[in-house]
């Protein structure tokens, strides 16, 4: 009789725990059955040198910069987007109609980000996570907010893709998919992009190209290891700055004139439009002599499509189409 | 002796307060006039007013018979030279270069310096006893040596009226005597020399005329032996003075005691 | 001895002028385009004589439209900044003065960000020049408030205040509006760059040098008179207040023109007058022309380094002058302390 009395409370407790676990498992199973292909596994990965761990897919996502926003939308996670910031331009046609909530036109400050109670902040540039920006990554992690930087934008040598290729880019999309709990959507997105990429006929004729992103007196151009190089390769163009070991780099006009590219890819941004770039080229007595300027062989790419993201394949298609004929 | 400068009823206001009141004084050519008085008496202000650097609030100054204000700046600078108490320079000039500045008012504005100017500078350097220092930079020199360089600058102006504002402050005894002896020589050549001094005995030994200032007013002026008497010295400086006559020159030698001290005799 | 002094100056000036011409010649041959010297010569001769050169029009354009105007602008800006710096140091009696003392560079940068970031519809050089003049006006108003004339100490303090204000405004605009990577351009401007210098820039810089710089050269004797302070200058017959105003405005116009063309290139105006003074002394008749020639030579070489060292990339020339200028400045300071 004493032994049974001793055993009863622990047994009862154990039974209660098992019962509750069973209930919650049942609840989880129900939830799983309703959510679209959501994974219940925890994810942990090394993102630009910072460890990012999520126990469950994020429900409240804040994105900074167009590449991040567009990736999240392309994965069909628009309803989990609670704030977007620092857009580099309007959404592409494919995503037109989605109207994600806008937090800020520029880099938001930490308080306004935290006010949205995000569980993940996805930034397109490493510099978005600074003390006077969205906040330091470690600080946000301490507050329970996970952070993720687009891997193509990592600056540190071990993490910066060298070079960035479409395969690497697609792997990055898959990684984002696993982090966000949308692996199937990511796989589908990648497949679609791979098909489109395979259908592109690169330009023939061994054309050389300049990828002019911004800057006037000293142009900032796409160099050898970043997204511009990746896109120029796919379009069948030879980058005159391919030997420069950087993603983008300032380049002297004299070097550009010496290389005399056959075509010029102009990045179109609201703060530095392609039209302004063309006017500047035509007005300059030296640059007006460039072959590409005399023959008006330009291709225009919107800024957001110029960085690593879901619009790069489309950009390559556009470049080829613009320069054909 | 005609007057080089005549001060009539001169009052000068600086920073809202009247620093000189109604000064009447004649500065004779070919004579050394010493300005004496305690700190704050207005000696420097009077010296600078004679240089044309302060506009009078009342009265005026005549230079060689014409109102001082009527002279053009360069014209005045060719006649009046000022040696200030302190001359600091940030730039590394040599002694010769500093002295050459004295020729500024004599230069034709845009022409190259002629040999006449160079000769005047060399003569000024020699006169001031700075010839052997000519190529040394000012900031390597002692206070006394720098003084000589600035004196050379004043002399290079070839002035008719030379104003010395406490020229003996940084000098040792020998240098003080040399400076005042030079003042006498210049006076003998017809220059009017005005020197603001602290040392009454030194002033008495070298000056032809002495003017005592006290709190902006002229208390007494005249020959040293007449002016430097206890009746004048005691109230102005707040001391008890004993005046003796120099055994050879007969000029006053002044010995002081603090006022209120018991005489020990 | 004395005569040698004067001809010594002339001799030195001739030597420096020859070095400058040689520097210009060498700089015209150096560049990322790797054109042989004969090609450069052909291009220049063809342009000057009106004949056709045998060169590809693009190569000719590289020489005549890119390189030549750039090195000529470098020479003019270097000369102007060194001259302005020397005058500023004399007028403020402060050896740490530089041409930007009166807030000129930060005023110009406000004008520059206005155009580059806020889209104000002025030409960049015009806006920069206007900004510099506005800063000058503000500094002079502050410095002369209270009616004591432009006393050097107050001028410096007023200039510091206006500089700080201009910098803050510039930073505010950059921070507030800089989207994407547009900050790159303004940073390049702030550091100083000659990459955008074409023939109009040559006209502006050389024109300012001739119109304002030459009269400044002739103020040499007046500048000497300021050596011992306002009282001594006044006693030497110099109209102190009026002269100071004139010199300040002239220096500001000269500096403003240079900054509008090249951004705020640092160290030339501060270090070159110092170094030249160490060699030839502080008499301005000697110092001013020699400092101008030296400044021209230094900037031509600094710019050549900026555009060829990291072939094919380019540095803003302000980085090169800072990297070179800082150790030189420290060396000059140490030498000063050693002597004194």
Summed up:
The complex is a heterotrimer of chains A (325), B (265) and C (340). Chain A has eleven helices and 13 strands.
Defining key terms:
heterotrimer, B: 265 residues, alpha/beta, 6-stranded mixed β-sheet, 4-stranded antiparallel β-sheet, 9 helices, 12 strands, C: 340 residues, mainly alpha, ABC transporter involved in vitamin B12 uptake, BtuC, 14 helices, 0% strand
Topology readout:
The complex is a heterotrimer of chains A (325), B (265) and C (340).
Chain A: H1 2-34, E1 43-47, E2 50-54, E3 61-64, H2 66-74, E4 81-85, E5 102-104, H3 110-115, E6 120-123, H4 137-142, E7 146-149, H5 166-180, H6 183-199, E8 208-214, E9 220-222, H7 227-234, E10 238-239, E11 248-250, H8 253-259, E12 263-268, H9 274-283, H10 291-294, E13 298-302, H11 312-323
Helix pairs in contact in A: 5-6, 6-11, 7-11
Chain B: E1 3-14, E2 17-28, E3 32-36, H1 43-50, E4 58-63, E5 66-67, H2 73-79, E6 80-83, H3 95-100, H4 115-127, H5 143-156, E7 161-165, H6 173-188, E8 192-196, H7 200-206, E9 209-214, E10 217-222, H8 224-227, H9 230-237, E11 239-245, E12 252-258
Parallel strand pairs in B: 3-8, 3-9, 6-7, 7-8
Antiparallel strand pairs in B: 1-2, 1-4, 4-5, 9-10, 11-12
Helix pairs in contact in B: 4-5
Chain C: H1 2-29, H2 37-49, H3 57-91, H4 104-116, H5 124-144, H6 152-177, H7 183-191, H8 199-217, H9 220-225, H10 230-235, H11 240-262, H12 268-280, H13 284-308, H14 317-339
Helix pairs in contact in C: 1-3, 1-13, 2-3, 3-8, 3-11, 3-12, 3-13, 4-5, 4-6, 4-7, 4-11, 5-6, 5-11, 8-11, 12-13, 12-14, 13-14
